[in-house]
Amino acid sequence: MTSSTVAVLSSSKEFTSKYKEEELLGEGGYSQVYAGECRSTSTPVAIKHIPKKDQAAGRLCDGSFENPAVIGLMDTFELETEVIIVMERPPDTVDGHDYMFKVKHVPEDQVKIIFKQIINAALLMHKNGVFHRDLKLENLLVDRNKGTPEVRVIDFGCGDFVENEPFREFNGTPDFAPPEVCRDETYRAEATTVWQIGVMLYMICTRNSFDTLKYMEQDNKVLGNVSKKCNDFLSRCLAFYPSQRPTLEDLLLHPWLELTGPHSNDPVLEVQEYCLRACLDIKQWIERLLFQSAPPSPTKSASTVSRECACIQRSAKEE
């Protein structure tokens, strides 16, 4: 499967003619996100404004495997002083932090379903050559109005492309950085993603905040409120040394993620796993060819496109 390229537009008039901008949804260190609506279809959208002085140069990418758990990219506008990214805004969703902490109790079986989706999504992102680098509960959208919670990954503002060489500079939430970053060592994409999955699970199990430095200093005992399999899964994700952490594929095979009962044949997971199988069946040499190919000619698109836009484009097939 391949993703169609989203054209980079450069007219503010075209933006205002296509989209109506509404209330501010959130603001971060590098951007602002507004609610909005597509004028022609009344479809709700999220509109992200990124000042050019803060946004990294990137590239729009083709050749991605379909990833239904990544938020979809609709339009990109490169204006004089900013880049505007227009994305899907699924109705009736809340961020993962609100979903997990505004209810008194989330059953462990439901937590399993959510994390199986997160791992599937992360594995497909990596297979598509994208390293999110800031996976956390706030960067997930959860549809809570269906029988099975559906998870979508958002906010690729700290994202980068998976490289063979390790990374040096960390971009992401400092409290959730892996121990190797705290030790001023280099870090790799997959081991960091596995650590961040462990951080999210730890926060849900303990209903507490997380700080890597504090976690490294404390005596991390077995959690009494979850199963032994969950504790084992957690301890593997939060191993202090990256070589001791499992791969994302190994995580999917962990016994804790085995689903039984009404969720064992869940259609949401079946779609994700179909896409994952299609991705994993591709030969390794084809993957290397896709992920290490030369970037497109700068004459085909603007030379200063948000890296975030590129990561979204490469992570999820666009309709």
Key attributes of the depicted protein:
three-stranded antiparallel β-sheet, protein serine/threonine kinase activity, transferase, six-stranded mixed β-sheet, globular, 11 helices, Protein_kinase_ATP_BS, 319 residues, alpha+beta, ATP binding, kinase
Q: If you had to describe this structure to a student in words, what would you say it looks like?
A:
With 319 residues, the chain is an alpha+beta fold. The protein has a domain at 93-278: Transferase(Phosphotransferase) domain 1 (Transferase(Phosphotransferase), domain 1, Orthogonal Bundle). The chain has 11 helices and 13 strands. A 6-stranded mixed beta sheet has the order 1-6-7-4-3-2, sandwiched between helices. A 3-stranded antiparallel beta sheet has the order 8-10-11. Residues 54-64 and 276-305 have low confidence and may be disordered. ATP binds at residue 53. Pfam families: Pkinase.
